[in-house]
Septin (Leptidea sinapis), 411 residues
Amino acid sequence: MAAIDVEPQKIEAAMRTLKLSGHVGFDSLPDQLVNKSVQNGFVFNILCIGETGLGKSTLMDSLFNTNFESSPSPHNLPTVKLKAHTYELQESSLTLCDTVGYGDQVNKEDSFKAVVDYIDAQFEAFLQEELKIKRSLGAYHDSRLHVCLYFICPTGHGLKSIDLVCMKKLDTKVNIIPIIAKADTISKTELQKFKSKIMHELQMNGVEIYQFPVDDESVSEVNSSMNSHIPFAVVGSTDFVKIGNKTVRARQYPWGTVQVENESHCDFVKLREMLIRTNMEDMREKTHAKHYELYRRRRLTQMGFTDVSFQQTFEQKRSAHLAELQQKEDEMRQMFVQRLHAKFDKLKKDHTEEKKRLEELRKKIEDDTVEFNRRKTQTLHSHHTLTLGKSKKKLIRNFTKIYVRTEEPSV
Ligand SMILES: Nc1nc2c(ncn2[C@@H]2O[C@H](COP(=O)(O)OP(=O)(O)O)[C@@H](O)[C@H]2O)c(=O)[nH]1
Ligand SMILES: [Mg+2]
């Protein structure tokens, strides 16, 4: 199979730009996965949690048969940070998210907080996209974490309290696969006891880890067998050793060689098969249907969607909103009508007053006319009196009286 070209892509500010010296090794994976997943395109996001120096970066390089070229992290970081690197593989994308400074602080109990916040932030981003009126989930880069590889220190003494606290905090948020790191540092007999002790402690503390599903007939046998090997004891290496005519990933010691992909040496191959081949789809599905669903329900309840049925709540909210709009519209209409009435009343009043004023003016003009006519007659009369005799004066006076009365306009 041809190597898949890998283009590292920046997804967030905290991210480092990576140059790959090799290729991401899907060619080391079974064809079935490559054909099925790469053809359809997939998004798979892995979270690695574990103390600095436990071999997280080395294991990722070994799993994907490449060199992600991450520089080793120092042990003196004041806080835990999460660094995500996304690699685009044709139609698919792989994100590796690494905890930096985990367990390095004096107060180790708080180490999980940054991880919880990070996981929630990815759920929140997805939820916000889902809640958009115009959703574009097709183009959306899903950054929700599908699996958490929890690296356990190979002490042989059981889990540390930070391990239990952290896994307990995360078990409702992500599929947890616990793995024993640097398993070459622990003897074969010790390893079996260590595995049972870890499982017992997880059980006693009610930590729910991811179980490979056994309900699908085609994988039930292999999955139930694999469930009994958890936690996988893994070895990683960036070194290659020639064994026979094959070059293999291995760690060399004065007393012998540990081969990463040799199943009698460690559980590396089991982890790779389960993680990237057999159960990748199940982990993606559980992330959405179980962990995200829980987050979504909690958040929607916080937002005020109290009903179980989103549709129902949505309809209720919608009709309440419409009723409110209607009420506002009615109020505005009423106010408009009231204003119109007030304006009309004022106009009517103004009109009546104007009419009254004009009426008075008319009456005054008429009165003035009468007065004018009266004076005119009077003047005329006195003028005649000067020229006429006394008997005639009387006659004229009487006549004028009659004349003025008949000429007076009816008011
Ligand atoms: N013995 C042993 N050493 C390992 C293994 N994996 C990594 N190392 C070594 O542990 C050191 C830290 O590894 P690294 O991958 O940088 O750890 P990280 O800080 O968890 O990313 C390096 O020197 C690795 O060579 C392993 O499986 N077994
Ligand atoms: Mg590292």
Notes: The longest helix spans residues 310-387.
